[in-house]
């Protein structure tokens, strides 16, 4: 089990969390409402499923909340 940093917190990734898309599914977040910063670089949405997580990665998930 690998450990990564998500929004400043340590996370021991379950074995089925291998890509950024898997990480969004793990947190139950809609990929259309989230911006992902992966190791200090913004990732385009279309690439989420092609970016594989590695031990020590630093990820920031910024999600938008609608309202009035």
Automatic annotation (TrEMBL):
It holds the Pfam family ThiS. PANTHER family: SULFUR CARRIER PROTEIN THIS. This is Sulfur carrier protein ThiS. The gene is thiS.
């Amino acid at each position: 089990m690998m450990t990564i940093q998500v929004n400043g917190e340590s996370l021991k990734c379950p074995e089925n969390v291998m890509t950024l898309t898997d990480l969004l599914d793990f947190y139950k977040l809609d990929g259309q409402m989230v911006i992902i910063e992966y190791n200090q670089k913004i990732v385009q949405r279309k690439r989420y499923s092609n970016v594989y997580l590695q031990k020590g990665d630093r990820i920031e998930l910024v999600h938008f909340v609608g309202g009035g």
